[in-house]
Amino acid sequence: MTEPKPAPIVWRPSQRAARLLTAAICAVVPAVLFGAWWCVPLAAVPLLMLTAHAGVHPSRIRAQVDVPERRCFEGETLTATIRLAADSSAGWTRQEYLPPRIRDDPEYGEVPTPSGLELESLELIDGVITVTLLVPRWGRWSLGAVAIDVYDTAGLRLTSLHAELGEVEAFPVPAQDEATLAPMRFPDRFGEHSARIPGEGVEFIQVRPYVFGDRQRRINWSATTRRRELQVNTFEAERAAEAVVVVDALSDLPQPPDPDTLYPRSTLDTAVRGAAGLAQAYLKNHDRIGLVTLSGRVQWLAPGSGNAHLYRIAQTVMDLRKDFTFEPGLLSRLPTRVLPPGAVVYLFSPLLDHSVVEAISELADRGHPLVVIDVLAHEPAPTTGAKPDHLDALALRLWRLDRQAVRFVLGELGVPVVSWDGIEPLDLALAPLQHAPLAGRTR
Amino acid sequence: MSDETAESTFSSREALLTSPLFWAGYGVLMAVMGTRLPMWSWPPPPDQILLLGFCVLAFPALAQPYVGRPVLAAVRLNHVAIAHRNTLLTGGFVMLVACEKPPAWAAGADALLLAGYLVLTDAITLPPGVLRRTASPAFLLLLVAVIAGATALVALPSSSGAYRPILAAAAGAAALGAALATAFGRAEVRRVGSRGTERRN
Questions:
Q1: Sequence ranges of the domains in chain B
Q2: What is the pLDDT, as a whole number, of residue B5?
Q3: Which chain A residues have a beta carbon less than 8 Å from that of B95?
Q4: Residue B197 confidence class, pLDDT cut points 50, 70, 90
Q5: A72 phi and psi, to 5 degrees?
């Protein structure tokens, strides 16, 4: 397959050329047309500067973009290189990084995208432009572009190249979490949790009379001697837990930045980082974890295990911020394999959208052990910027009452709600729920 | 000259060229010479005072070198004027000078002012390597010689011959040639962005 022929390069006069030509023409025209001879010395200056050095330039220039890593974790830096190659000489180049913009809505104008990409360095060494970018937020983002102006050797003509840097996938940094809540009933899979049913584990339950088929090594000889009939030890079965994390992306509120990193933060950032932390903790214990996202359309990932599953989960949430659609129905269309019976369900939400309460009610009706993690840790501030007046205070009071009403409804449903601000470890928020296995509602 | 002396000279020169005050002062000087303030008859008419006032306000702003990329965020008059302010200044200064016949010394001083502005603007907008080629000491001497020669020719009495139309025709031909040379050119073998030609942003 032949390589497509590059577009021809258009050379245009530079600002230096415009300066000199304007001065020359403004001096020559009055001198020739109106006999203003005193303009001739003025015309001589720019004409000499224009003609003394003949500028030369290449006829073909190519910029080859190379981004070795297109996946990273948020907070990491990416390096992109642009190799410039030309068939002949050029005077010099100057380059400028063009950050990505919200191109879908022209009214946003100069507002950058929520990616918060920061340019750390942009340097040209031996025909190679190196761009270093900090990716402070998770998501699939455009890296922007680099505009390169190539001048001729006299600085009189220039041409511009546009090097698109492509996209990057920034995975969320998992929140610090070691805690995994165990359900009352485990699915029938081998794992590392002690289930409250007899099995082949190591946790002792009781001694019972021997029945035909019991293994001889399980005989408890002390009890057998006391009771004068064969007694065997019974142990708990070891099972793997199943969990599903539900991320509510129906509402996303900006939050104060993390004091350590000062990166931008929102309720959705907190939710996704918490979901990643829980997924990491469950996968570390060889459990299975799945994901459901509630945004315009419901996306899901059936529970799975293994390290690769963490990356699958991260990739599922990549485009959450770009989903502006809305489909009714939410969880009613989920297949059973996505929400296995008895799986612990964690729901990360700022509890601002009333359809989330319906989704929680639906999950509780299905009998899942359910925990709601409220990620809205800060009350809204008055947007006017002025001193808060009585209307602001009234609005805040109504907002608090609304939040209390939502929490009351969830309490009536028997769903525990914990608050988590995304800065402290998630373990601390879940600690009150760890003293006993979670039980779902019985029908 | 030792390295430290050379470095301090370079930094002081750079500080001067990046100082807005220096460029504002240069703009005021161009306004004063362009409006012929030294040749005024006193008391001056109000229109001259108005013109001087306008130029003293406008030229210092237009004289600040534009060092950004020649990209317009919007095709509005103020955006265009900001990006091409140095072109506006040179054009405005030359047209102002063309309006009134000056004495020979003033014509030479105007040409020197214009040359100084163009060379100093190049000094701040071109990379050092390119500047060394385009504004070498020999070239600057040639520039001064051409200004002196052209001023001397202009200073000759008008009855001395028909040299002025020839001079104007030569200047016109040179302007046309320069415009054509700027629009079309040939290439030589070298790499883009090779060492020593980097432009600092």
A1: 3-183
A2: 64
A3: 26, 30
A4: very low
A5: -155, 175
Residues A22-74 have pLDDT tens digits of: 999 999 888 888 878 888 888 888 888 888 777 777 878 888 899 998 899 88
Among the partner-chain residues B108, B179, B189, the one whose CB lies closest to the CB of A89 is B189
- Decide if pLDDT at A409 tops 50: yes
Query: Nearest to residue A194, comparing CAs of A257, A134, A237, A138?
Result: A237
Residue type, A201: G
Residues of A in contact with B71 (CB under 8 A): 147
Give residues 141 to 170 of A whose Cβ lies within 8 Å of B: 147, 149-158
For A244, list phi and psi in degrees, rounded to 5.
Answer: -130, 130
Nearest to A59 by CA among A86, A41, A93, A80: A86
Cβ distance of B194 and A126 shorter than 8 Å = yes
Answer whether A179 touches B (CB < 8 Å). no
Q: Would you state the torsion angle of the CA atoms of residues A33, A38, A40, A42, taken in this order, to the nearest 10 degrees? A: -120
Question: Any chain B CB within 8 A of the CB of A40?
Answer: yes
Integer angstrom CA distances of residue B113 from A212, A243, B28, B139: 114, 79, 11, 16
Q: What share of chain B is helix, strand, coil (3-state, %, to 5)?
A: 70, 0, 30
User: Residue A153 and residue B168: Cβ atoms within 8 Å?
Assistant: no
Quote the radius of gyration of chain B (alpha carbons, Å): 20
Picking from B118, B168, B187, the nearest residue to A20 by CB comes out as B118
Is the distance from CB of A154 to CB of B185 less than 8 angstroms? no
Q: Of B97, B130, B178, which has the smallest distance from its Cβ to A155's Cβ?
A: B130
Q: Name the phi and psi angles at A178, rounded to 5.
A: -115, -15
Query: Which residues of chain A does B198 touch, with a Cβ-Cβ cutoff of 8 Å?
Result: 92-93, 123-125
User: A89 — contact with chain B (CB < 8 Å)?
Assistant: yes
Q: Cβ of A40 and B154 within 8 Å? A: yes
* Cβ neighbour number for residue A138 with a 10 Å cutoff: 26
Chain B partners of A25 at a C-beta cutoff of 8 Å?
Answer: 175
The ipTM of this complex is 0.80
- What is the C-alpha to C-alpha distance for residues A350 and A411, in angstroms, rounded to an integer? 16
The distance from CA A163 to its chain's CA centroid, rounded to whole angstroms, is 25
Asked whether the beta carbons of residue A127 and residue B90 sit closer than 8 angstroms, the reply is: no
**Beta strands across the sheet bearing A12-13:** A12-13, A157-164, A145-151, A92-98
- The amino acid sitting at A292 is V
- What is the average pLDDT score of chain B? 78
